[in-house]
Amino acid sequence: MADRELAEFRQLGRGTVLSSFHYHYARLIEILFAIERISELIDDPEIISTQVRSLARRNRWEGVGVSEAPRGTLFHHYKVREGGLLTWVNLLIATGQNNLAMNQTILQIAKHYVNGNQLQEGMLNHVEAGIRAYDPCLSCSTHAAGIMPLHIELLGPSGELLDELGRG
Length: 168
What we know:
By secondary structure, the protein is an alpha+beta fold. It has six helices and seven strands. A three-stranded antiparallel sheet has the order 1-2-3. Strands 4-5 form a two-stranded antiparallel ribbon. A two-stranded antiparallel sheet has the order 6-7.
């Protein structure tokens, strides 16, 4: 099924599909592939054998891990002391990694929807779509599509408020 979906996905453009709005679709195909692969693995006699055993215990005082999540890669780094108490944690989450791309997207939207001293109708929906393209977990954990609370202020060179749009 994942192969069929991937073939359909590739029909969205010539060569590499570049639109950030297709990230979620690509991630769904990855999830489908993972489910299919898990189904194969749980029936593998070597994996379900009673001879497979893992002993869980601390084997290092420091560890780094990486995992792919729906909104991007999560890097995590931990330090522990005797007894397993965490003494230091550093997380590099997708929100931080996607921040530059989100800001550039919002800038492109602003260039299109700011006319002189006025914000144009439709800007809120486009800003919301730009945020959701790069950080689906942040936006969907807070509000449903189309009703995400947003407030945009257009400030003049001296910081004076020229216009604003908002909802929620």
